[in-house]
Amino acid sequence: MQILVCVKQVPDSDAPIHIDSDGRWIQTEEISGFRMNRLDEFAVEEAVLIKASSAQTVVEAVTVGPERSADVIKRSIGMGADSGIHIVTRGAKYQSSFETSALIAEYARRRSYDLILTGAMSEDNMQGQVGPMIAGRLGIPWATSVIYEKIAADGKSIHIEREIEGGNRDILELQLPAVLTIQSGINTPRYPSLSNLLRANRAPHEKIQAGDLAQGPFPEVVDRIAYPQKKASGEVLDGTQEQKAVQLVRLLRERALLP
Q1: 2-212, CATH topology level
Q2: What order do you get walking across the sheet with 169-175 strand by strand?
C-alpha cells in the first residue's frame, strides 16, 4: 500500500504576529520559530500505524512551502515515514487552499497512492479545505474529521468513522484510493526517535519547484489582512447583589431584551 501524508509548517503558537507593510500577509521573517501543524501529527501517526500493521506499506510525506518547510519533512521521517517530497514555493506569502491542493493533487496524479491523509485543518488558516479539494481534483472519495479507520483485508476499501455534530459519528465505507482528513484524538502522535531523526538528516528528500507542477492563476487572492478591532466594551455593575440585579434588569429593558 502507498500512503501519502500531507503536512504543513506553521508558526509557533506563541510567536508575535506582525502584518507586512503592504497589508497582505504577516512578516514571517520576524517569526523565530516554526513547527509542524499539530493536527498533521495525527495524520502522520495514523499512516505509521497502518504501515506497522500492513506488510509492504510505504509512507511518504509531502509539504508545500518555502525552503524552511523542509523541517516538517524531516520530522515526518523522524516519526516513521519512509521518505518525503518538498514542493518548493517562492517566498513566504499567503498560500491559498486552492494552490496547495492543486500542487499536491498534481503530484499525486503522477503516482499510485492508495490513501492520502491530511490533518483535519491547519492551525493558521483553520479552513479544512485542502483534503477535500485534493480529492475533488483527483476524482476520488473522501471523508473529513476521521476518528477511526480500518482498511479491509483485501485492501480495496476502508471502513471509517467521522465526527459530526452533537457528539455523533458517521460510519462510512469508502473505496480506495481515497482521501481522509484526520481528527485529533484518533491516536497519540509519537515523539520522533533518535535513529529516525538521524536517518532523516542523512536521507535526501525529493524537491520539486511549484511552478513545475501547477500554474495559476488561482481563484483566491488576499486583498488585505487586519488585526481584530474592538467593537464594544463591557460594563461593570457596582453595588450589592440586589442593586446589581436592578441595574441588570434596567439595562436589558433599555436594549429591548426584556419586556
Answers
A1: Rossmann fold (3.40.50)
A2: 169-175, 157-163, 142-151, 178-182, 115-119, 2-6, 58-65, 83-88, 206-209
Amino acid at 116: I
Any idea what DSSP says for residue 165? G
Q: Which helix (H) or strand (E) holds 5?
A: strand 2-6
Q: By C-alpha distance, which of 159, 150, 148 is closest to 182?
A: 148
Residue with cell 514555493: 89
Contacts of 69 (CB under 8 A, 6+ apart): 8, 9, 63, 86, 88
* Phi/psi of residue 115, nearest 5 degrees: -150, 135
pLDDT tens, residue by residue, 124-178: 888 999 999 999 999 999 999 999 999 999 999 999 999 998 889 999 999 999 9
Q: Name the phi and psi angles at 118, rounded to 5.
A: -135, 165
Q: How many helices (H) and strands (E) does the chain have?
A: 6, 11
149 near 46, Cβ under 8 Å? yes
pLDDT digits (tens, 9 = 90+) for 75-132: 999 999 999 999 999 877 788 899 999 999 999 998 989 999 999 999 988 899 999 9
Q: With contact defined as beta carbons under 8 Å apart, do 220 and 130 qualify?
A: no
Report d(CA 226, CA 46) in Å as an integer.
Answer: 37
Cross-strand pairs, 6: 62, 118
